[in-house]
Amino acid sequence: MSVFVDYLIIFWGFFMIAIMAIGGYFMFRKFLKRLPKKDGKSTMDWETYYVNITKHMWDEEEKQLLEELVSPVPELFRDVARHKIVGKVGEVALAKSKQKITQDVLIEGYIIATPKRDHKFLRKKLAEKEIDTAPYEPFFQQSNNDYNSDWKRKHQL
Q1: pLDDT tens readout for residues 63-116
Q2: What string of DSSP letters covers the chain?
Q3: Which of 41, 67, 93, 111 would be a feasible disulfide site paired with 98, CB 3.0-4.6 Å?
Q4: What stretches pass through the bilayer (predicted)?
């Protein structure tokens, strides 16, 4: 019986170390997003800025489409994903000097804001909504890292 208890204690120790490492990883990622960049604002500050400045540009139809597009995201992470996507959509709209958020701007911003592994869910949702993905193929072909620094210059229409 004591051998079983010994193994249980060892397993529990490794389990706790693994759980703390996973939690620490996500906390560290959040910490890195909060660090100010060269311009004095963090990534999260810019997201919040674009969300707030473009709040009035959203129509009900685009809000509903956004909700449908983020529906595959687990509910625990959905608010964070939605905030990131809305921030990037707002940034795209302002870069293109749009007066309101359109379906095209929403989809383009969604593609830019999400990692490549999530694009299959977006394609599936767009197919369900009978929205043609052909105009967005150049965005789908690039990785998320390709957008980071100068996506505005590369994709401005």
Answers
A1: 999 998 898 888 888 888 899 999 999 999 999 888 999 888 999 999 988 888
A2: -HHHHHHHHHHHHHHHHHHHHHHHHHHHHHHHHHS--TTS--HHHHHHHHHHHTGGG--HHHHHHHHHHHTTS-HHHHHHHHHHHHHHHHHHHHHTT-SS--HHHHHHHHHHHS-GGGHHHHHHHHHHTT---GGGHHHHHS-HHHHTTTHHHHH--
A3: 93
A4: 6-28
